[in-house]
Write a structure and sequence with these properties.
This protein has about 300 residues and is an alpha/beta fold. It contains nine helices and nine strands.
């Protein structure tokens, strides 16, 4: 009788042990399945972003007007929200040359950009000390006073000069997220030799560069431009009252143009730099991507300069 009880206890112990092993193996299998599914969905999200990115390249490549870029074109109205199997993808294409290029501030001789930036900040309600901090980051050699940067964790030692991307502004000590959010819709970061596209620049941006133009006149220019975009820089300069008489342009030895006043060599009616901001969703998961595209003259296709993808 005792031997039977002993055997029964052993059997129960063995069953319990096998049950524990089975539960452990099933748990690991479920964890592996979940991880595999997450990996598959992450890959599908990336493919969905790739698809919209390819569509953005196609829209820019098939632009029917090789001279002008304006807000009436297909690429500017591609804020699509496309349903996909078990999810969706959405995006928007922005002309980066219609924004204020912070890298203009890296040139200490660019008085026009400096003054226009101050006027832009005033118009959108950003404190002037934020503008000073941004200019200090961009000045050749970096900020003169680096104490605030060295107190960061980890400490930073800015080298100054042009920025690579707008997110670098987050490293500026004391620049609040609220101020950055207010400034972000109006600024960009592209090569410093870029020109402002007057066919896509907002009235706020144009006003920063045209301080002497009455608000009513500027509003009329923007309204007419949205109806019929400028065909040439000369057309815009004439509309803004900045065109120089032909005889004055041809006169040798005349006064040089004021570097603090907008001139024709600072603006354009077309663009080569664009940004696609994309969002993909799948089964409750999401992913985002910002892609910068550079479009050369026809027949070259737009090229991807860089992209940043984010997954929560």
């Amino acid at each position: 009788m005792k031997e039977r009880g002993f055997v029964l206890v052993n059997a129960l112990v063995i069953v319990a042990a096998l049950t524990a092993v089975a539960v452990f193996l099933l748990s690991r299998a479920e964890t592996g399945r979940v991880r595999l599914l997450a990996g598959i969905e992450a890959e599908q999200l990336a493919l969905n972003l790739d698809a919209y990115e390819a569509w953005a390249v196609t829209l820019l490549a098939r632009d029917g007007d090789p001279v002008r870029d304006h807000l009436g074109e297909d690429w500017a109205n591609a804020a699509a929200d496309l349903p996909l199997a078990r999810g969706r993808v959405a995006g928007q294409i922005t002309d980066m040359q219609g924004l204020f290029n912070l890298n203009w501030l890296a040139d200490p001789d660019n008085l026009l950009a400096r003054d226009a930036f101050d006027r832009l900040l005033a118009r959108i309600g950003v404190p002037s000390n934020a503008g000073t901090a941004i200019r200090d980051l961009l000045r050749p050699g970096g900020p003169e006073n680096r104490d605030a940067y060295l107190r960061l964790d980890p400490p930073l030692d800015p080298v100054g000069g042009s920025l690579l991307m707008r997110d670098q502004l987050r490293a500026i000590p004391g620049l609040s997220p609220q101020v950055l959010a207010r400034l972000t819709p109006y600024i960009t970061v592209i090569p410093g030799d870029s020109r402002l596209n007057v066919n896509t620049a907002s009235e706020v941006i144009l006003a920063a560069f045209l301080p002497d133009l009455p608000a009513a006149t500027l509003n009329r220019i923007v309204t007419e431009r949205d109806r019929e975009p400028f065909a040439s820089v000369e057309d815009f300069m004439t509309a803004a009252g900045l065109a120089r008489p032909e005889q004055e342009q041809d006169t040798e030895g005349g006064d040089d143009p004021d570097p603090a006043i907008l001139s024709g060599d600072r603006v354009a009616v077309g663009s080569e730099w664009f940004r696609a901001d994309l969002t993909a969703q799948l089964n409750g998961r999401s992913a985002e991507r910002s892609t910068v595209l550079r479009r050369g003259p026809p027949p070259t296709r737009p090229e991807i300069a860089w992209r940043v993808s984010r997954r929560p």
